[in-house]
Amino acid sequence: MSSRIIFHIDVNSAFLSWEAAYRIYHLGAHVDLRTIPAAIGGDVSMRHGIILAKSIPAKPYGIKTGMTILEARQKCPKLYLAPPNYSLYQCCSKAFMQILQEYTPDIEVYSIDESFLDMTSTINLYGEAVEVAYHIKNRIKSELGFTVNVGVSSNKLLAKMASEFEKPDRVHTLFPNEIKEKMWPLPVSELFFCGRATTKKLSSIGINTIGDLANTDIEILKSHLKKQGEVMWSFANGLDFSAVISEAPKQKGYGNSTTTPFDVSDLETAKKVLLALCETVGARLRMDDFQAKVISIGIKNFDLKYSSHQMIMKNATNITIELYHYSCELFQQLWDGRTPIRHLAIHTSSLSSGVSGRQMDLFDVTDYVRLEKLDKTVDAIRNRYGKDVLKRAAFIQVKGTDTKLQSIDHMEGGVSREKRSVDYSKIKVV
Prior knowledge:
Layout: E1 6-11, H1 14-27, E2 38-40, E3 53-54, H2 69-75, E4 80-82, H3 86-100, E5 107-111, E6 114-118, H4 129-144, E7 148-153, H5 156-163, E8 171-173, H6 179-182, H7 196-204, H8 210-214, H9 218-225, H10 227-236, E9 253-264, H11 267-287, E10 290-301, E11 306-317, H12 320-334, E12 341-353, H13 368-385, H14 403-406, H15 417-420
Parallel strand pairs: 2-4, 7-8
Antiparallel strand pairs: 1-6, 1-7, 2-3, 5-6, 9-12, 10-11, 10-12
């Protein structure tokens, strides 16, 4: 056994587990959603609603993450659907991570519901690796009310592969000496980083299991998959030298996007969505003391075709209204003015921090210093009293105005307002 000890800890059906635990321990629910065909999936009436998480009893019906709600209901008419509550999920994730931090400072947060732990320097404080893994798993279950899988190995790849074995509420090991027995018999599609297209290519040359891949001449793989072939061969043989990175990578850009519950088919509505996105992007830039030099926008039409466009701005900026003007300019260049839109995105990059010089335009009389100060003042007020305490006039709901325009949140956070919290008084909790 290698002296290096890596844990991969993954919450089982995270969103559904967190929802189930909250309903049982805080709302007095009689039914555990994890024991019935159930899923987290939003509002059936929303055309863009998809399955975000599912229970194990829902799996035999063919319910899959990413499936539309309507399709899921066709496969399982009695499927219990719970609306997403992202505020709850963030709280659960925070509590989950806080427990992990007690065991080692070397933690890489991989997603909201999973992390890598480098236990090499601290494992001797707690005992044998497998015993510690069980201790952490059981503690999370008893203190937080949901279950996790723990994969134990000598590198990140094998630890993650191990955590994907039988679920839920399990501890699995996958050390190099166990690869042949535990990993090689698995379908090649279960190998980390092996997507649908790669699986299909490998199958066409007679490679169906991870063992087949591991024992194939690397030059043959490179001839079919180029550089990826070498990577896949390394993974199939359990080779991974990447470190657990506890520090977040340096921010390369800030962006936001939203899927609208209706088709955007006019410029006024599109601009309102763009302004809402710019509000959050600008606020995040200012919070971290960054200005962006490059801005891009992306649109996805009603049949899910995606297109994007970007430009270099005259000056690096974090001013909301300036970001908005550039995004509108890009949008009008990109959109044909006819095709209905379902998704809009804004992204900024080429960041600089601190005070940056501004190239002045002889004919531009805009007081940018004033605008920047105004934005920062608005940020401070919203941070203290709530984001809804100040709104731009464009988002003020006026009686008799277009209901579509009114449905656009003034600070689109990528996650719609109704998904950030749930009014359980309006839901029949079983």
